Amino acid sequence: MREERITVGAWDLVLLRPDDPESLIDEERFGIDEFMPYWAELWPSGIALARHVAELPLAGKRVLELGCGLGLPSLSAAAAGAEVLATDWAREALDLLRSNAAANELRLETARLDWRDDAPPGSPFDLVLAADVLYEDRNAQPLLALLDHTVADAGEAVVADPGRRHAEAFFEAAVARGWSLDQRPVRELPSGSLTTLRRR
User: Fold this and answer.
1) At 191, is the pLDDT very low, low, confident or very high (cuts 50, 70, 90)?
2) Which element (helix H / strand E) includes 30?
3) Which residue, 43, 88, 175, 191, could crosslink 163 as a Cys pair with Cβ 3.0–4.6 Å?
């Protein structure tokens, strides 16, 4: 494991993460559901989303992160005073996130979530977060369905994407489904953007 310190807004967060994510590849798990240990990487989208979250007035808000991986946006939201539920398919990601939250003296909840299942407990939420989750086409429709169930009527979702090839079709489908989009470039994602989705 390696330890890093990452500044998000007013907070310096300590993040413990695997030294060599490729060493975590498990051929048996890949054979079951094409599982790859993407959760173990510190992706630029996660950093961009965490820094965006640090700017939001989240005290007392209920926040959900989908596909949290290392969970930097969840840690940022917890530091800002939100009530946070971080979800991922990989149990290892959730175990490590709980340890990192404790190391930063932050409180959050975690839950294992397969996007093909029902919405996570406590839905809907004021804010739903997702960082770099559109790397496979099969993620797009389940993500849209989840947003329908997890974003409160007056809430919003923020998706950080580095420019994955499936992203454009996802956002077009979101508009067709009744969402408005507010896209803005950020320095961490030179080929992508942070996109806020709200119900029209």
Assistant:
1) very high
2) helix 27-33
3) 191
Q: Per-residue pLDDT tens for 137-179?
A: 888 999 999 999 999 999 999 999 999 999 999 999 999 999 9
The count of domains in the chain is: 1
d(CA 199, CA 181): 9
pLDDT band at 98 (very low <50, low <70, confident <90, very high): very high
pTM metric for this prediction: 0.92
What's 64's domain CATH number? 3.40.50.150
Give Cβ neighbours of residue 179 (< 8 Å, ≥ 6 apart).
147, 197, 198, 199, 200
Full residue range of the structural domain in which residue 168 is found = 2-22+37-199
In a domain, 16, yes or no: yes
- Rg of the chain on CA atoms, in Å: 16
| DSSP state at residue 91 | H
The reply to whether 165 falls in a domain is yes
